[in-house]
Please model this.
Amino acid sequence: MHRVTPILQADGLSFGYPNASDGTLFDGLDVLLPPGVTWVSGDEGAGKTTLLQLLAGALPTTGQIEINGVSLRENATAYKEQVAWFDPRDNALDQHTARQLFSTLPQRYIGCDLDSLRTHLEGLSLAPHLDKPLATLSTGTRRKVLLAAALASQAAVILLDQPFMALDRPSIDYVLGVLAEAARHPDRAWVVADYEAPINVRLAGVLKLKQ
Model:
């Protein structure tokens, strides 16, 4: 049987928030992300968003995380160049316009595809909003801007946190179509953290988090 080489491998991840009831959210968690789409499921408070932040290198953790053999601990810059994470809850980009955000992608991600960005802008109906600060956009439109950035990054690992929240039906259908194609990609791992699996998308893996 052919063994698939994981894009991302994490061993022994441990993390806890100081105000958590027992202080620990993850204790020795191992994660393998194969090519294709992996669904991270779990109830409210199970740590779906936190896990994405850990995999993005946005939170400190014990343990080891590697993408294509590049270690977060040993080379954080090279690691983060391979992972796309645009936190929808982060307001650091609020004063930037969508166009300004998109202009940074080629510097952040070597494989960034501006042709695909144009396709995503059309698919998500973002053309009228390119020169508006993110802080002035509706929740759904702001999330679509961040989705377009992640999709266009062409990063080895693309982390999506509840990607369908606050989206209109055409945009939901568009993202589902992108994920259906992503399921067949041999060199890229997509992570969808959500309460339900994306519809009609073949999953390469499922990671169920428990409280």
User: Anything to note?
Assistant: Residues 8-208 form a domain with the Rossmann fold fold (CATH 3.40.50.300).
